[in-house]
Design goal:
268 residues, alpha/beta, nine-stranded mixed beta sheet, two-stranded antiparallel sheet, 7 helices, 11 strands, electron transfer activity, transport, Probable electron transfer flavoprotein subunit beta
């Protein structure tokens, strides 16, 4: 089937700059959060989302018109967008925040993404949003669901397999649930959040990294989108978990029971 005979898809992939997954997290001296003066990279679940968008293009060919990455964060977040462009995204949007601004909360991010999707209506609209199921810094796991609710779109969370039928305007998604998998079919437009087993993200090649420098990044502000990122939650205190104390050996069950009683445990 020729590309002109099929409906073209526009895919939006939100990505986040977060503390690198290999960094050992430490609480800052003020106990207001974690130490951010460490290596940062793209959130791993978002890497999976970018990879899935490029795999959909590989499977569907010219039916995928565009893949656009978007991030919300300080100027350094542009590095994350360049990574997404090197992995296969065509263009990007950077909603730039001041360096000192607090990280936006899930609801604020969802509202900003809704505003971006509305802006994209003039250039063909957005058919599928593919995003990580959670960010490894706050582990909130809420943005995708909130975005689907704000848009009144279908949602397929924790996806481990995605198949899109362009002609039928549907997607069949295998999603992770407790004790197994669930297969659902959704109408487009659709919000999909990615699980670990969806794919293995590629490493961007040097030629792709060089090409990414020439791909366009549009800069926006919160005012451009009419969104307020002011925090609705207040973090009172952040502390590290208590240090684990080493255990001890016992010679018999009777000795174990005696020690449990000494520690205040009683049989039920």
């Amino acid at each position: 089937m020729r590309a002109s005979a099929v409906r073209l898809l526009n895919i939006l992939v939100p990505v986040k700059r977060s503390v690198d997954y290999a960094v050992k997290i430490r609480v800052n001296p003020q106990q207001t959060g974690v130490d951010l003066n460490v290596k940062h990279s793209m959130n791993p679940f978002d890497e999976i989302a970018v990879e899935e968008a490029t795999l959909l293009r590989k499977r569907l060919g010219d039916a995928v018109k565009s893949i656009k990455a978007v991030t919300i964060g300080p100027p350094k977040s542009a590095e994350t967008l360049r990574t997404a462009l090197a992995m296969g995204a065509d263009s990007a949007i950077h909603v730039e925040l001041p360096e000192s601004a607090p990280a936006p909360e899930p609801l604020g991010v969802a509202q900003a993404l809704r505003a971006i999707i509305r802006r994209e209506q003039d250039s063909g609209g957005v058919d599928i949003v593919i995003m990580g199921k959670q960010a490894i810094d706050d582990d909130a796991g809420q943005t995708g669901q909130m975005l689907a609710g704000l848009l009144d779109w279908g949602q397929a969370t924790f996806a481990s397999k995605v198949d899109v039928d362009v002609d039928a305007k549907t997607a069949t998604v295998m999603r992770e649930i407790d004790g197994g998998s669930e297969e659902i079919r959704c109408r487009l437009p659709l919000v999909i959040t990615t699980d670990l087993r969806l794919n293995v993200p590629r490493y961007a090649s040097l030629p792709a990294i060089m090409k990414a420098k020439k791909k366009p990044i549009e800069k926006l502000t919160a005012a451009d989108l009419g969104v307020d990122f002011s925090p609705r939650l207040e973090t009172l205190k952040v502390t590290e978990p208590p240090t684990r104390v080493g255990g001890g050996k016992v010679e018999s069950v009777d000795e174990l029971v005696a020690k449990l009683k000494e520690a205040g445990f009683t049989a039920v």
